[in-house]
Design brief:
The complex is a heterodimer of chains A (205) and B (341). Helix content of chain A is 76%, strand content 0%. By secondary structure, chain A is mostly helical. Chain A folds into two domains: 88 residues, Rna Polymerase Sigma Factor, Chain: A (Orthogonal Bundle); 93 residues, Arc Repressor Mutant, subunit A, CATH 1.10.10.10. In chain A, helix 6 packs across helix 9. By secondary structure, chain B is of the alpha+beta class. In chain B, the strands form three sheets. In chain B, strands 1, 2, 3, 4, 5, 6, 7, 8, 9, 10, 11, 12, 13 and 14 form a 14-stranded mixed sheet that branches. In chain B, strand 6 and strand 7 form a beta hairpin. Classes of the chains: A mainly alpha (205), B alpha+beta (341).
């Protein structure tokens, strides 16, 4: 990864195209976990996520001579991961039971202290409200926040204009704010603020 | 709040503002109380939502098992290349259609296809070199002898696949990925060690005869050495095996077992269970005979079994296992079920 960081997207791609195995290995090291996480969040099963992620990279190597990068390698990889996973879901009539899984992942925190229950509830509410956003809006918001893709990269990967991405993120933020405000009033945002400060503290340590 | 406000907040949070928008933003923030409050709320949602994603918990796996992963991806590339292969170059000849009669077109296409297949090995060599070569023997098939590109040979048991990394990508070693069970007779070459990678371990030799057993889902991987010396490693642990020795790597404990001396049955292609659990034994039998084997009772999985089988007959093997463990077996349409009496 050391030298890969100093290479730009075009350099990495042309090295991979010429069959440079070291760059290829570094490329996999760099993106394997993020892509697997992204796929995992769609299928919610580790074994499927693992298998599909390997397919993404195998396809990349196999098709490497035809690859053209519009915005970034990252956007290309995510698009390919998204297509493969959507196909997989369609082919297997696979339905990830998202909400049931959501409750399960959260419930482990419940024997902790009072504040942490409060905290996890707030977090859970935000997660739930994100899941309740309209389909396109939800996908774009998650790509931005969970996968940390830029608006341009999202536009590239969904083959949609950037202003559509801006618009949908705006809608998401507006909707989330209204929902949370109705539920908790202004205190919600104060508590969120405290959580954020505590977390930063935690990461500093 | 009108929608241009949200547009500016969105662009600001995503770092996508133009110079002009930045100025508008600063101005609104200092003059418009409502805008300020909305922006503060939105930025809290923005930051908190990143924390609320869930991630699979095995993030250390990648670096720990990286070569295994790389080999698996290579094996998938080989599978993709294979599925593409039968592409007859038909289209180029369509232009000739008018001049030629149908019969001569048919004859020429057959000739050209024949030509294509006859020369395809050379064709591959002139084309871009492939990163790997794939050998496999399906579940339930008889043992199969193959010649590896370096002159070594291998005998593959049923349910085994090997992916050989071609040497233009690896100059200083011979490397292959194995899933299943195989006996290797390695061509001596001190400059280029011969390395067998499995999902969990790595076996390094210079030139010897040895067997590796590493079926998918098996809870242990075993190497038995007939001649020469072998380095058997996993992560940072290592065992050196000499002639007539064997050891296993146990996945659960991530440890190697003690080195044991080889029994005569070990390195033949015969089935030999050296005190392994029934779960593992049934995985080996499934691969050898291509039949699904189920355990009706979970407590059976951990029962240990020892046995040498001189004949490759599933019925006889099942009979002896049943007798030894005092259990019974039923052959059903889709599977063989082992259960308590």
């Amino acid at each position: 990864m050391k030298n890969a960081e100093f290479l730009n997207n075009d350099d990495i791609l042309s090295k991979i195209k010429s069959g440079d195995r070291e760059t290829w290995a570094n490329f996999i090291k760099m993106y394997y976990e993020p892509i697997k996480g992204f796929i995992y969040r769609m299928v919610l099963q580790n074994a499927h996520a693992e298998e599909l992620t390997q397919d993404v990279f195998a396809n990349f190597w196999y098709k490497r001579h035809e690859i053209v990068i519009k915005t970034s390698l990252k956007a290309y990889l995510y698009r390919s991961a998204r297509n493969l996973t959507l196909n997989f879901i369609k082919r297997n009539k696979y339905e990830a039971n998202y909400n049931a899984q959501l409750e399960k992942t959260i419930s482990y925190q419940h024997n902790e202290t009072e504040e942490q229950i409060h905290y996890s509830e707030l977090e859970l509410t935000l997660k739930r409200e994100i899941e309740n956003l309209p389909e396109e809006c939800k996908e774009i918001f998650k790509l931005s926040r969970y996968e940390e893709l830029s608006y341009k990269e999202i536009a590239d990967l969904l083959e949609t204009p950037v202003r559509r991405v801006h618009y949908q993120i705006g809608i998401a933020l507006k909707t989330l704010r209204e929902k949370l405000k109705n539920k908790y009033g202004n205190t919600y945002f104060t508590v969120l603020y405290i959580i954020l400060i505590n977390l930063m503290d935690f990461f500093d340590r | 709040m009108n929608s241009t406000y949200w547009d500016i907040i969105t662009k600001k949070l995503g770092g996508d503002c133009t110079e002009e928008e930045k100025m508008t933003f600063e101005k609104l923030l200092s003059t418009d109380e409502q805008f300020k409050e909305t922006y503060n709320d939105a930025s809290k949602i923005w930051q908190t939502s990143t924390l609320s994603k869930y991630t699979p918990n095995s993030s250390k796996e990648v670096t720990r098992n990286f070569n295994g992963l790389l080999d698996k991806i290579d094996a998938k590339v080989v599978a993709l290349e294979k599925s593409e292969r039968p592409k007859a170059p038909k289209q180029k000849f369509i232009e000739f259609r008018r001049k030629w009669t149908w019969a001569s077109i048919a004859a020429s296409i057959i000739f050209i296809i024949g030509f294509y297949f006859a020369f395809s090995p050379q064709d591959q060599a002139t084309k871009e070199p492939q990163i790997a070569t794939h050998f496999s023997n399906p579940q339930g098939a008889a043992q199969k002898n193959i010649n590896l590109p370096d002159g070594s040979t291998a005998m593959l048991m049923g349910g085994t696949s090997i992916t050989w990394a071609n040497s233009n990508t690896l100059k200083n070693e011979r490397r292959l990925f194995l899933e299943g069970e195989a006996i290797f007779d390695v061509q001596n070459n001190a400059q280029k060690p011969f390395i067998v990678k499995t999902m969990h371990t790595s076996i390094k030799v210079l030139g010897t005869v040895f067997k590796v057993q590493a079926y998918k889902d098996l809870q242990l991987e075993t190497v038995s050495v007939e001649e020469g010396r072998v380095e058997f490693t996993s992560n940072d642990k290592k065992v050196t095996l000499s002639a007539k020795e064997k050891a296993s790597f146990v996945l659960e404990s991530q440890e190697f077992t003690a080195v044991k001396s080889l029994e005569i049955s070990d390195n033949s292609n015969r089935i030999f269970f050296d005190n392994i659990d029934l779960q593992s034994a049934s995985i080996i039998l499934e691969n050898r005979f291509g039949k699904k084997i189920k355990l009706a009772d979970k407590t059976l999985a951990r029962r240990k079994i020892y046995g040498k089988f001189n004949r490759e007959n599933l019925n006889e093997i099942l009979q002896s296992i049943s007798l030894a463990l005092d259990i019974k077996y039923v052959i059903k349409e889709d599977a063989i079920v082992l259960s308590k009496k």
